[in-house]
Amino acid sequence: MAPRFDLIGIAVTDMARSLDFYRRLGLDIPAEADSEAHVEVTLPGGLRLAWDDVAMIRTFHPHWTAPTGSPRTGLAFRCADPAEVDRTWAELTGAGFHGELPPWDAFWGQRYAVLHDPDGNGVDLYAPLDAG
What's the pTM? Predict the structure, then answer.
């Protein structure tokens, strides 16, 4: 049997702030998770998304350091339509989260925007321009 892709892990410096960001994107994360060192949710289709605070990571990887520079990977959230891209962007940036690239109509046929989660990870929002 070949390995099966199962989980995306994110290192965080402030669990509650990170989970707030992802809740605003529609993920069902219980409020009591804010004080945990490790949190994970199962997404539709079975893939899991997990968050580990830096102190937890250092319990098994004592020399871990945060990467520097621009992120090389990102997460993308499909929105129902272009207006939802704009609404979600406005909600998250209005709540103080970093907006990297404001919504635009991309040449490949999508309304697109890029945010950063509290730890600088790229999170894209998109919807087909012809979402009707």
Answer: 0.90
